[in-house]
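Throughout this review, each integer encodes one residue's backbone shape. One record appears below.

===
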Amino acid sequence: MITLSVVYFILSQYFIGHVLLLGAYLILVLLSSITYMLLVKHQNASLIRRLNDLFDKIDYKPDYTDNELSSLEQKLYTLIKSHKAITEQIEREKEQMNSLISDVAHQVKTPLSNIIMYTDLMLENKSTDDDKPEKIRMQAEKLRFLIDALIKISRCEKGLITGNLKIYQHNIKELLTRAVSDILPASRQKNITIYTNCDPKLTAFFDMKWTSEAIYNILDNAVKYSNANSIINIKTTPYEFFVRIDITDSGMGIPENEQADIWKRFYRGKLVNTENGVGIGLYLTKEILTSQHGYIEVASKPGKGSTFSVYLPRTQI
């Protein structure tokens, strides 16, 4: 007769066998999962490496093995190669257009200067009330302004401005004096007074010639869009890493929904469409400042004027 202990022994062996079998099955599943994950990771890493190669060097030769990854790779390769060819063609045409604009503008400047000179002679020697010479001169000046603008934008596109900045430590007071001196004839015509508050010992790192041009562009807009007999204030504030130059006018102001667009090339706001200009002054100003690790901000409300804040680095970057 089978004793109870024998029954327990048989049952325990049965359960132990199934437990071991189940454990072995689970280990097999776990190993299979790990193997699959490693395989997928390897394939993903291979795909990422190939994609990086595609973006880094277009002469990369794709793997033509017959699988989904290589098929996708081939399609991406073809797409990127076509995109690169189109981009290069656009850049070539853009360079040709910039060269054409620059050449035409330079060729036109000499005869235009002669027209202005002869018109001035006519104005000096005129003996009647004929206002035609004065009108000719005004139109010639407008044309010269447009040509100068085309030359500047062409130089900027070619990198002849931002790529050739001579950045040294300069005096801020000297910078402002240069810019204000250039804008004085226009400000006097409208009886606009410009006040400057600047520490004479304050310095920063920038290109004197082109940063003066950037400040002038801001002052030009301030004079152009301000009422006669108004005031423009220039104030400097030193910080640890930057010098801030605030240029505040009491002009027409800039609507908030246009303030992000004023830095775009050829952008003209709705309030200034009747004024002379082509919309490159602030674009060029921002390009000059950012190219020497500075930046510019604007705070403005329609009818209450604007404050343009220029930041120039105090240390060599």
Notes: The first strand starts at residue 168 and ends at 171. The chain has three domains: 4-82, 94-158, 164-313.
